[in-house]
Amino acid sequence: MGNNLVRVIESEREKGTVEMNLSQRGILELPPEIGLLTNLKRLKLDGNQLTRIPFEINYLSNLQYLNLKSNSLKEFPEALCYMQRLEILDVSKNQIKSLPEDFGRLQTTLKAFSISKNRLQEIPSYFCRMKELKILKLEFNPIEYPPQNIINCPPEMPQDVWLNRLKEFLKRDG
Q1: Domain ranges within the chain, ordered by starting residue
Q2: pTM for the predicted model, two decimal places
Q3: N or C: which end of the chain has fewer CB within 10 A?
Q4: Rounded to an integer, what distance in angstroms lies between the CA atom of residue 160 and that of residue 134?
Q5: How many CB atoms sit inside 10 A of residue 157's CB?
Q6: H helices of 16-82, where?
């Protein structure tokens, strides 16, 4: 799909496309030309076989929604940390073990984040500073030890059911 995908991207750029669905297309690699789609607000890439995301994705300056669920990502794509308008991000069902420190840069925009069914081993403490985050999905990760400050996060911290259960467990156990 490589050259075909580049042609599709170039065609969609000319149209000024704001939403693109590339779900379940067997895509192995996203070309750097993805960064040309500067009008995009929503991008669905779920159900492919992506192992990495090109840095050029952060050129999508209007992107608000990104679905990377059910791919083969082993590392969190660091370029996503620099997306200025990203509100909803789904990287569930991948193989991600950790989040980069720069993930905290999304604290002013990110409202919903799912990293369920990955290999995440700890909950980064910067989640407590993410004031806009309303939905945080962390289920089915082999979390070894959540930081103590997650228990003491301010009330505006995302309060999904799983996190509440974790807090209660830690209070009883601690």
Answers
A1: 2-173
A2: 0.87
A3: C
A4: 8
A5: 18
A6: none
